[in-house]
Each structure stands twice: as structure tokens, then as C-alpha cells.
Specification:
5 domains; single chain; alpha+beta; seven-stranded mixed β-sheet
Length: 908
């Protein structure tokens, strides 16, 4: 009898993201007897989108090997035991279970005895445990990456000194973005551990007095060398969810029966799918379900394909069935459907507020390596000067994972930023315009900021070790191991690192734009057709922006064309291009040098960069067709003021290498008011400048400040206002009329105090009107309106609320000036007055020297690792590898075939 296919731990965890779909549940491997990838092949829709790039698989394999390295295995085990408040083990034993159930049971028995008799912790790798609920059946087991067995503490409730804990774990080579790992990824990792814990807890072969611990451990990379660290978390809630999912799988398996002698495609077809283009793409049946919708004659099929929510479809079906009858719809959703059916992108009415294509901007595209979190195959840069754009300069890096590559990357960027700064100060010495870096999408910004964070941490560590050398102390890591002192961060590199960290700090403030995401900017102006998730590709978005009535777009043809491209507009490569570059880099694994095929490697990288350059250049050309907003000056002023603070940080070398994640609580508390002011200003600017955003907000019942209105008569001016919050004697300001922003009128001006003049502002009166919500409006500036016009108005109390009805204003811009050099500070101010300037212009060199002395004193007193128990967590965890420790370099390893039954969802 064939074994029941449970799909392993990952399959059960993935079910939690697709569990609402009856087709996904009904095609569980338990029911069909085959993996999901095999199922997709059997029904004629092989899953190619979820394929794991070869470099990505090699990275995962390299990390798993490092987790099994003797040093790191011992470190992960002891860290886990220490953070669970268990006794310090005498030693750590390392064993491998070989993914065999019987061997796993025998090893657990020995590990239990070892723990209770000698207080020895055991790190067990490659376990195989019967899948929960299937111990008596012939079923594929759950395969946890590792587990730790440790002696129970005597003080634990119900704890027996003769008992042991089984602490389940898993290894995931999750990327750190801006010094942290995404919470959703961590959640998925701990859910997988929870399944292993549930399987182990129900296993009858566990030794007596061995219990599965309520907490689990996830090994993740702590640096770019893939060296692991242990994260522990309470699994109580995760295990509850797993129990529900497993029970759900059992119920579905009993309700759905598949006869192996029947056609599998007929079985799949009868299962109803719950399709969502933004979440279903990780499912192996995505292409099958999408094809089913594309060939359907049902009018609502197109709405489902586009991702229109089920409760909204009845209101929107009139846009696709030819009747034209629609209910209440968000303007943005209506624009998406209309663009899809007509083949031309819808305009939002937004005028330009971005700096793309203007002097002071640096255009940057990169090709990311799948082999490393911070790996870069190449970069291309172009600076826009007052005399026009420079030529693109592309560079391919021969060692994409190396620290020298990251330093070279910062040198390239630093030179461009320095030149842009110099030109801005030359053109306007008193109030230089801000500089910006323009990237195709958020992923490029995240990678560059993560690299800057990495290099800033290394430089701060170097400053501490420089102090150690001055004081005759050895350079040691946080854990007391010999450190390899890195080279100094050069001035031009520091400029780039500091500017990128400014973006890290700026992400808290919506008004800040040191790095400009071209995809987001273009999305302000046009709404492309097709599923909204497709517009996250910039080349797809540009194609729609160029469409005309004479040459409309078929969204399905364009989507298929984009999916087949070997190129991508963003940092991450397509699977095909990633594999091509990886093979040219490693060759057959026998070459002594990397890249193994240098000429081919460079050609592929430069070819990929050329495509990304072309896409970003096309965006610049498209945006040039949109008029500039009257509000652009306000945005530029806000960024200029903020960058004045950053430039002082850089000049004084004070707090310019501090990422926002390292700021102290006092700093963050002081930013609460700043963040609130920023949020209010951004909401007001969006309401003023973007008709679609304002209309959507006005239709939202939760929005108090905005409302839709209809012009009833023009003499007198009477409005029907769809809001219960705007009442008799309220004052309102007209924002948009028939999708046109009033703030962009030729009569609009800005005085020296920042007030916006020329807007239509005035009180409402319900006198003489019997109809509810009907008002006579008496604005000081009479707007040109016609009967039936659809307008968006705002409560004037939210926008300025001045005594006279002649001007309005957005909220005052506030900036992060905490612990930053003041305008009155001078070079040498801190040296002359250390107390008075301790929290403004004190340089990094002195702060890190003091911290170095503090660490040395704590180490001397035995208050640091490895002397203390439990181990102290290094909150900085910067990218410094102790001398002589094993490091992960997937680029140096021989190629490994990617298992056909796995998808990228299994790794991420």
C-alpha cells in the first residue's frame, strides 16, 4: 500500500494562507496522494512561477550546513537553553537522525538519558517524526530541521529533575531587511516549528519523562555570512492554530474522496476556488485557476480575476456586462475596472510633486544576487545635473557576496551623492535644493539601505576596536572572540551610507523622500488595468501609461508577456536570469576562480542592468508629460529642511551612522508629535492634490474631514453634501471639481507664511432648505461651477481654520531634530563644551570609545559572554564575523539540483 502523502511540515503551514479556498483544501496531498507541484503538472498547468532559483536553493543549503557546524550547533543549543531559563549544560552533544523515524526514536532515548544523568544538552538534526494524527498509518513523516534536548529545571512546575525537555526547532535563511526580519516570515517559521511540536507531542515513542517544550527555536542568519543565531518564541498560539489546521485537513480528507482510477483534472475542476490574484500566486494551482477564469463566460469572472472583493462585485458588474448600472464603488476600483475593459490607463488627476528627472537626482538600478541577502551582481547609476542627464555607468561585481563589493557599491553611490550635493550648494548656497536617489521599486531601496546599515555597524565596531588598540586591549567581539578589524569607512563611502540611513530614518515620516520609488510615483498618476498586483512591476505600469485609444492594451496578453520576460525592472532577478547568472558564476563547481565564466557573467549582468535602465528612463519620459503641481514647492521645502539636519549630522560625524532601529526610547518618545504632524500634513496634501484619493476618502464613512457634494444651483450656490458631520454654519473649502484639483488653478498662490490663497472657502447655511443635507454656500472666492458638478469639499476646521475665508494651509511640517547638531553648533563645539553639547554634536568616535571602555570593564568583571548565564543578547548584532569562524559563501559551493517537489514558498 502506498504511503499517505502529508506534504510535510511546510505544506501544513502554507495551508494557513490558502485555507479559505475549497480547491486548495480539496487537493491536499493527503487526498490526492501526490505533491501539489506534481498535481499541477498532471492537470497540464505546471507551476513555473514558484520555482526556486538555483542560487537561492544553494543559499538555503549553505545555511543549513552552517547550522550543523559544531560551533554554531553548540551556540544555538546553549542560547536556546539559556533563554528558556534552564540550567547551563555541562556540554553539548551533536547527533544526526538521518530523517529516519526509528533512528530518531533511539536518539531521543539516548539524549533523554544523557540530559537527566549528566546535564548534557543534545542538538539533534534531520529528525523524522510521524505526522500528527498519522502515526498508525503509512504516511510521510514531518521533518523538523533540528531539536534540542535539555534537562528540566527543578523549580519548574511539575518539573522533575529526572525529566527532560524536547525543544523543537527549524532553520530558515530569512533575509534581514533594514536590520530586521519580516514578522510574517518569522510567523510562518514558528508555525512550522509548532507542527513539529504537535507531531512530537502526540508521538507514542517519546521517552517517559520527556515533554515537548511550550517554546520553540528558529535559527536565522544574524549577518551576511549566514552565521546563525537562535530566536525563541512561545508556541502556544501557534500550536493552537496548527491543531485547527490539522483537524481541518482530516475533515477535508474524509469529506473529499479521490478515486485514483478517475481523471485528476475532473476532480480538481469540481472543487470551487476562492481566487485572489494578490495572494494566490504562491499556490501551485494559480495558473490553472486563472486560466479557468479567463475562459469563463460569466460576467463576474473578470471581476474575480481582477481581485474585486466578493461583497463589491454586485455593484461593479455593470461595468463589465454592458448594462452600465453600478452601485457605490471606490473611485480607484472603478478606474481599475474601466482601464481593464477599455485598454487605456485611467488618470487620477494628480499633478507632479516628485523630483524624478530633475537636477539633484541620482538614478540607480541594481541586480540582486539570490545567493546572499546583501549580494549584488551589478549596479548602474545616472545623475541628473542642471545641464541634463549624465550617461549611465554600469558596473558588474565579480564577487557579489563580498564585503569589498559592498564597499565598492558605496563608493560608486557616494561619488554621485557628493557631486549632487556640490552642485546644489553651488546653485543656491543659502538654501540648496535637496538631493534624491531614484529607484525602480521598494526592493532596490530596501537592499541598499540594508547594505548601508551593515556597513554603518561595521564602522561603529571599528571605532570601538580602534579605542581598544589605543588602550592596549585586544579587539574582541561581543561574545569575547577575537575580531578581525575592518578597514576604515572612507569619506565618500560614509556619505553614501549616511544618506541611505537617512532613508531608514525617513521611513517613519511619509513626507520624507530621500529615496524616491518610481513605481509608487507613477501609481499616483495612472491606474493600469488588470489585477492591481500586476502593477507592482514597473514595466507593466509603464506599458499601461503609454497606452492610447488607438493602441489599447489587452491586460491578459500584457501580463503573459511580462511573466515570460527574462528581465525584471527591480532588484530581484527572474528565475531564468538568476539561474543563467549563477551558472556562469560557479560553472560546474570545479573552477578555482569566480566567476568561472567571467565574460559571460559580465555580459549577463550588464544586459540585465541595461533593461532596468531602459525601464527607469521610460518612467522619466512618461512623467515628463504630466504638469507640475503647485504643491511641489511645499514637498521640496519639507525635504530641504530635513536634509539640512542630515547634512549637519554628516558634517559633524554625529549620529549620521545611527539607523532608526537603534534609537533610544527617549528619542522615539520625542518623535511622537513629529510623526503625528507628519501624518496630518501628508493626509492634507493628498486630499488637496489627488482627486481619486480625496474621493475615496470622502466616500469612506470613517472619514470626518472630507465629503462628496453635488451642485444644485449656482445662483445662489447650493450644494447637496453627503456628510452628517458637516452641518449648518460649518465652513468648507472646495478641493476638487469633476476630478480636477482646485489647488492647481492659476489663481492659487502661496504667501511667505505658507498659506494657500485663492481657494474657495466659506460658511454653509441650511436656512430656506427643507431637504436634509442641502446648504447654501457663501465662499469669499466664488468658484466657476455648473449644476450637477460633482465636487469634494473639506471641513475648513481641518485645513487652517483661519478667521478670514481667503486662505488655507496644511499642518506645520516638523522634523527629526533629536540628538542632531543644531544650526548654532560649530566644529569643535563639543570639544569646548562636552556637557552642553552631549546630545547634539558629540561625534561617533567619542561615543563608541566610551562604549568600548564600558564593554572592557564589564568583560573584566565577568559580566559578558561567555562568562555569564544565560547568554546576553547582542542587540546590535552587526556584521562582524569572529576570526576563524565558519562563514557561508554559496558562490563558492558546487551547484546542487533544486528538488522538484519544492517551491519558493517552502523556503520563504
Amino acid at each position: 500500500m502506498a504511503a499517505t502523502v502529508t506534504g510535510g511540515a511546510t505544506s501544513a503551514v502554507a495551508a494557513s494562507s490558502h485555507a479559505a479556498c475549497a480547491r486548495f483544501r480539496g487537493t491536499d496531498p493527503i487526498i490526492t496522494g501526490r505533491s501539489r507541484r506534481k498535481l499541477a503538472v498532471d492537470i497540464g498547468f505546471a507551476d513555473s512561477s514558484g520555482k526556486i532559483p538555483e542560487a537561492r536553493w544553494l543559499r538555503a543549503a549553505t545555511f543549513e550546513k552552517l547550522v550543523r557546524d559544531e560551533k554554531f550547533a553548540s551556540e544555538v543549543a546553549t542560547t536556546t537553553v539559556g533563554r528558556l531559563d534552564l540550567a547551563r549544560p555541562e556540554s553539548v552533544a551533536i547527533v544526526h537522525a538521518g530523517t529516519n523515524v526509528d533512528k530518531t526514536a533511539a536518539i531521543l532515548a539516548v539524549a533523554h538519558e544523557r540530559a537527566v544523568s549528566g546535564n548534557v544538552a543534545t542538538m539533534i538534526y534531520q529528525l523524522a517524526i510521524p505526522f500528527v494524527g498519522f502515526e498508525e498509518a503509512s504516511a510521510t513523516p514531518a521533518l523538523p530541521d533540528f531539536a534540542v534536548v535539555a534537562r528540566k529545571a527543578p523549580h519548574e512546575q511539575g518539573g522533575d529533575i529526572d525529566g527532560s525537555w524536547l525543544i523543537m526547532g527549524d532553520a530558515k535563511d530569512y533575509e534581514r531587511v533594514r536590520s530586521r526580519i519580516d514578522d510574517n516570515r518569522l510567523l510562518k517559521g514558528f508555525l512550522q516549528i509548532a507542527l513539529g511540536a504537535e507531531s512530537a507531542a502526540s508521538w507514542t515513542q517519546l521517552p517517559p519523562s520527556m515533554d515537548v517544550h511550550q517554546w520553540g527555536v528558529l535559527a536565522v542568519p544574524r549577518n551576511s555570512f549566514l552565521q546563525p543565531e537562535a530566536l525563541v518564541e512561545d508556541l502556544r498560539d501557534h500550536r493552537e492554530e496548527v491543531r485547527l489546521r490539522v483537524a481541518e485537513r482530516h475533515d477535508e480528507a474524509q469529506q473529499q474522496t479521490y478515486d485514483p482510477s478517475s481523471e485528476i483534472d475532473e476532480f480538481v475542476e469540481h472543487l470551487e476556488a476562492t481566487f485572489n490574484p494578490s495572494t494566490c500566486s504562491t499556490c501551485t494551482l494559480f495558473s490553472y485557476c486563472r486560466s479557468e477564469l479567463r475562459t469563463s463566460s460569466d460576467s463576474t469572472a473578470l471581476l474575480i480575476e481582477l481581485g474585486v472583493p466578493a461583497d463589491v462585485r454586485p455593484h461593479a458588474v455593470g461595468l463589465v456586462d454592458g448594462t452600465g448600472e453600478i452601485g457605490p464603488l471606490e473611485r480607484s476600483l472603478q478606474a481599475l475596472i474601466v482601464a481593464t475593459t477599455e485598454g487605456v490607463a485611467e488618470r487620477t488627476g494628480q499633478y507632479r510633486i516628485d523630483p524624478i528627472g530633475k537636477p539633484g537626482t541620482v538614478n540607480v538600478v541594481i541586480a540582486k544576487s539570490d545567493s546572499a541577502a546583501l549580494g549584488v551582481h551589478g549596479v548602474a547609476v545616472q545623475r541628473i545635473t542642471a545641464d541634463g542627464p549624465t550617461e549611465w555607468k554600469a558596473t558588474a561585481f565579480s564577487n557579489p557576496m563580498g564585503a569589498d563589493t559592498r564597499r565598492s557599491l558605496m563608493t560608486i553611490l557616494g561619488k554621485e551623492f557628493t557631486a549632487a550635493l556640490a552642485e546644489a550648494r553651488r546653485l543656491n548656497p543659502d538654501a540648496p535644493d535637496p538631493i534624491h536617489m531614484v529607484v525602480p521599486e521598494k526592493g532596490t531601496a530596501d537592499l541598499l539601505v540594508s547594505i548601508a546599515d551593515n556597513m554603518a555597524g561595521i564602522e561603529l565596531s571599528r571605532l570601538r576596536w580602534h579605542r581598544d588598540k589605543e588602550m592596549g586591549r585586544p579587539a574582541l567581539t561581543f561574545n569575547g572572540e577575537p575580531a578581525e578589524v575592518p578597514p576604515i569607512l572612507r569619506e565618500v563611502q560614509r556619505t553614501a551610507v549616511s544618506f541611505l540611513l537617512e532613508e531608514d530614518r525617513a521611513r517613519t515620516f511619509q513626507l520624507r523622500t530621500p529615496i524616491v520609488d518610481a513605481r509608487t510615483v507613477l501609481a499616483r498618476h495612472v491606474v493600469p488595468g488588470g489585477p492591481a498586483v500586476n502593477a507592482f512591476r514597473l514595466d507593466y505600469q509603464v506599458a499601461w501609461a503609454k497606452a492610447t485609444r488607438e493602441r489599447p492594451i489587452n491586460h491578459r496578453e500584457l501580463s503573459d508577456e511580462i511573466e515570460k520576460l527574462v528581465h525584471t525592472p527591480g532588484a530581484r532577478l527572474s528565475n531564468a536570469r538568476s539561474d543563467e547568472i549563477h551558472r556562469s558564476y560557479v560553472g560546474d563547481g570545479t573552477a578555482e576562480v569566480r566567476p568561472a565564466h567571467a565574460a559571460e557573467y559580465e555580459r549577463l549582468v550588464l544586459d540585465e542592468l541595461a533593461y532596468k535602465q531602459d525601464v527607469l528612463t521610460a518612467v522619466i519620459d512618461v512623467l515628463a508629460t504630466f504638469p507640475e503641481s503647485n504643491l511641489a514647492a511645499l514637498h521640496r521645502k519639507a525635504e530641504r529642511k530635513a536634509q539640512e539636519i542630515w547634512y549637519r549630522r554628516l558634517t559633524f560625524r554625529a549620529s549620521d551612522l545611527v539607523r532608526f532601529g537603534r534609537t533610544n526610547r527617549q528619542w522615539r518618545r520625542k518623535l511622537v508629535d513629529v510623526v503625528e504632524a507628519d501624518d496630518k500634513a501628508v493626509r492634507q496634501l493628498r486630499a488637496l492634490g489627488n482627486p481619486q484619493v480625496a474621493a475615496d476618502a470622502a466616500q469612506d464613512a470613517g472619514t470626518r474631514e472630507l465629503a462628496m457634494a453635488t451642485v444644485v444651483t449656482t445662483e445662489p450656490l447650493v450644494l447637496d453634501i453627503k456628510s452628517r458631520r458637516i452641518v449648518h454654519e460649518s465652513r468648507i473649502v472646495l478641493l476638487h471639481c469633476n476630478g480636477e484639483p482646485c489647488v492647481e488653478g492659476s489663481e492659487i498662490g502661496f504667501d511667505r507664511y505658507g498659506k494657500i490663497t485663492g481657494m474657495a472657502i466659506g460658511p454653509l447655511s441650511s436656512d430656506g432648505h427643507d431637504e436634509p443635507r442641502r446648504f447654501t454656500w457663501d465662499p469669499a472666492n466664488i468658484p466657476t461651477l455648473d449644476v450637477g458638478d460633482q465636487v469634494v469639499v473639506a471641513d475648513f476646521a481641518w485645513l487652517g481654520n483661519f478667521a478670514r475665508n481667503t486662505a488655507t494651509a496644511v499642518a506645520e511640517f516638523k522634523f527629526d531634530e533629536n540628538q542632531a547638531p543644531k544650526a548654532s553648533c560649530e566644529l569643535g563645539s563639543w570639544g569646548d563644551d562636552p556637557v552642553g553639547h552631549a546630545w547634539c554634536c558629540r561625534p561617533h568616535d567619542d561615543i563608541e570609545a566610551e562604549w568600548s571602555d564600558t564593554l572592557a570593564e564589564r568583560r573584566k568583571n565577568g559580566d559578558l559572554n561567555p562568562d555569564v548565564w544565560p547568554p546576553i543578547v547582542d542587540a546590535d548584532a552587526f556584521d562582524i564575523a569572529p576570526t576563524g569562524t565558519a562563514q557561508g559563501d554559496p558562490g563558492a559551493a558546487a551547484p546542487e539540483p533544486v528538488p522538484d517537489n519544492l517551491t519558493i514558498d517552502d523556503l520563504d
